[in-house]
Amino acid sequence: MSVDKFLTEKNINVRAMKSKMADIWRPARGINIKEIKTGLFLFQFYHKDDMQWVVKGGPWSFDGAILVFNTVGNGEDPTKVLLNEVEFWIQIYDLPVGYMSESIGKQLGNFFGTFVQYDSSNNKSIWREFMRIRIKVDVRRPLKRKKKICKKDKSDVIVHCKYEKLGDLCFVCGLLTHTERFCSKRSTAESESVNKEWGSWLRAPPRRAGGSSRSKWLREEDDGDWGNKIDGGTNNEKFSGFQKSDLVQRRDNSNQESAFFSFDGADTNNSEMAKLAMQASQSK
Question: With bands split at pLDDT 50, 70 and 90, how would you rate the model's confidence at 170?
Fold first, then answer.
């Protein structure tokens, strides 16, 4: 069982929230959600694996509001359980070459929050754009955005942080507990223009893009046995719907077909090139 609250100044539609969270999580044994007082909920799972899946898959949000939760022990008063921390996967960009190790990740994790886990599976790419680590964030403090690193050659570099599954936050003070509209710092500012040091750029892009299915001709970096995957694991003449003779014929015609493509980005007159290729073909 866990006690939960949403970080928001808005009123939560409790009925909609219950259905939405249950539909997202789909616990095998079901879930019971009860509001014990305004804005504070008890989430009762009927199997420990269901609860662990939710804990590891967070953060979660409803209507943009981040969900903060903590476990409740036997005989413990749920209204007195601290709800001050939430875990995020973060992506750290602009790291120098040689600074992608787990030891560096622990140091950075303990700067941006409290280090929890290093994503070693993010190391498989031939080129890593960012380091990925999981941290615990204190929601009473502003989100950290960047850090200056001093390299061995005494030069400095600034690395930037993005948060996965980041919900609403205040662009004025950087807190997760409210949006700019409800920020007291903004309401007490003397000038109309308030400096916003946080923004939507703190949200990390989705790690898996949606859309149509991947082309079977597109290789990933770890597709070591790609040839067998394409021809179905057999050595016969059939090659994914084409005959090998078709591939040979295509290579023979590659010189003529290449006249229709520009690989250097130059502006070419395709219609004129098509006419020339047609005339050359008819003259044979």
Answer: very high
Query: What is the domain extent for residue 159?
Result: 85-202
In CATH, what number is assigned to the domain containing residue 20? 3.30.70
Burial of 93 (0-12, 13-18, 19+ CB in 10 A): middle
User: With a threshold of 0.90, does the pTM exceed it?
Assistant: no
- Whether 132 has a pLDDT exceeding 80, the answer reads yes
Q: Does 34 lie in the same domain as 72? A: yes
Structural contact between residues 54 and 45, judged by C-beta atoms closer than 8 angstroms: yes
With respect to residue 215, please indicate whether it lies within any of the assigned structural domains.
no
Task: Answer yes or no: are the C-beta atoms of 178 and 9 closer than 8 Å.
Answer: yes
Considering the domain boundaries, does residue 267 fall inside one?
Answer: no
**Into how many domains does the chain fold?**
2
Cis peptide before 96 (omega within 30 of 0): no
Distances in Å between the alpha carbon of 140 and those of 85, 89, 121, 180?
Answer: 8, 18, 31, 16
Instruction: Give yes or no: residues 69 and 91 share one domain.
Output: no
